[in-house]
Amino acid sequence: MPVHRPGSPTRPHRSTGSHGSRRPAVAVVLTVLSLLLAFPGAAQAAEDVPPRGSAHMGMGVVEHDGEGPMPPDSPSAAAVQTEGVDVSSHQGNVNWASLWSSGVKWAYVKATEGTYYKNTYFTQQYNGSYNVGMIRGSYHFATPDTSSGAAQADYFVNNGGGWSKDGKTLPGALDIEWNPYGNQCFGKSQAGMVSWIWDFVNRYKYRTGRYPVIYTATSWWKTCTGNYSGFATNHPLWVARYNTTPGELPAGWSFYTMWQYTSSGPIVGDHNKFNGAYDRLQALANG
């Protein structure tokens, strides 16, 4: 046992065991708290990012373009349009009979996203719309920062995005819009984005024999492709604008094929108008 000699300094007691390990943890907590106080937006930004796979058509339209009044219920005879909806896993099991009775004649169902997500309600939604008599198709939510356009086209076709000439199946649609998970243009330059879209549409055409529909919003298209006009010749345009008119279209397209006009339509899903009568919708399905 050590003996304390008078006049010699007493050594401080050093704690051992689990109590000693708390000091580094406390320091880490204090550091994190100081960073959150210095950058309060960091925590909020992380909370605002939705989980992968949850993206759906038009989720950025209200945030970026706003939402105006609904278009008139009765378009003139010179501008006959056919009502449609688009749905994703957010809608769950859809009551297709109610939609059919309300006048909805066509539907697009989210099939895939990136190369990592398949809609868990796809079968009910895709087959259910067909079974009540609707002309239906499927769409792919693009994530150009996760894999190539060709890889995502293959994933789409392999998981519900194909096409058959049965008069009831629309060509697949490429949903290319604001990135809900990060940079709005997915970190790509305008030229890089155009190349990625070409990679997707060319592969889809090779796999199915059809050119896909391109769904987008004019403001996003201008920002992220530089308002590129080269897809207009062969690819039907599905434009998103929540207002009384579709407004300005992306470069190259002189008319829209489909118009997503609201995210809060009656019964379920986003509502859309096909720019023509039902027989023209059938013609699009048949190719």
Task: Please give a structural write-up.
The protein is an alpha/beta fold. It has 2 domains: 17-48; 61-286, Glycosidases (TIM Barrel), CATH 3.20.20. The protein contains 9 helices and 9 strands. Strands 1-2-4-5-6-7-8-9 form an 8-stranded mixed beta barrel, surrounded by 4 helices. The model is unreliable at 1-21, 35-44 and 74-78 (pLDDT under 50).
Helices and strands in order:
Blueprint: H1 22-38, H2 40-48, H3 61-65, E1 82-87, H4 96-101, E2 106-113, E3 117-118, H5 122-131, E4 135-141, H6 149-158, E5 173-175, H7 190-208, E6 213-216, H8 218-225, E7 237-240, E8 258-262, E9 270-274, H9 278-286
Parallel strand pairs: 1-2, 2-4, 4-5, 5-6, 6-7, 7-8
Antiparallel strand pairs: 1-9, 2-3, 8-9
Helix pairs in contact: 1-2, 6-7
- The N- to C-terminal Cα distance equals 96 Å
Look at the helices and sheets and give the structural class: alpha/beta
Low-confidence stretches: 1-21, 35-44, 74-78
Tally the beta strands: 9
In percent terms, what proportion of residues is strand?
15-25%
